[in-house]
């Protein structure tokens, strides 16, 4: 019984995540100017850095440009050198984008 519930719950979570991703796509109607994107940085906290894979795990607030609620998730980084600018536990400002269907940090800076 327990095993069946775990499988059912896992399946429901995957279906829900897929449905959310399909209905919460960023608008492609107009391109943002670079200065507008920089002004619209999101806030987060670095939870994990994987330099070998070029990934960072961030606990973040709303990502308005991606229409995404607060959560903790793994992002690719646009430039692996960005991972040298931050460490686990840092509070950061960052810009995330969808690049080739993957969530990617395009800009990151530690909060002062």
Q: What are the salient characteristics of this protein?
A:
five-stranded mixed β-barrel; 2 helices; 5 strands; OB fold (Dihydrolipoamide Acetyltransferase, E2P); 112 residues; alpha+beta; 25% helix
Number of strands: 5
Mean pLDDT: 79
The level of helicity is 25-40%
Tell me the name of the CATH class of the domain at 37-110. Mainly Beta
Radius of gyration: 16 Å
What is the third-level CATH name, the topology of the domain at 37-110?
OB fold (Dihydrolipoamide Acetyltransferase, E2P)
For the sheet with most strands, the description reads:
5 strands, mixed, barrel
Strand order of the largest sheet: 1-2-3-5-4
Structural class designation: alpha+beta
By DSSP (H or I, 4+ residues per run), the number of helices equals: 2
Low-confidence stretches: 8-20, 27-37
What would CATH call the architecture of the domain at 37-110?
Beta Barrel
- Content of β-strand: 35-45%
For this structure, what is the CATH homologous superfamily of the domain at 37-110?
A: Copper binding periplasmic protein CusF
Which series of helices and strands comes N to C? HHEEEEE
Question: Which overall shape is indicated by the principal axes computed on the Cα atoms?
Answer: globular
Straight-line N-to-C gap: 51 Å
Could you provide a short overview of the structure?
The protein is 25% helix and 36% strand. With 112 residues, it is α+β, with helices and mostly antiparallel strands. The protein starts with a helix and ends with a strand.
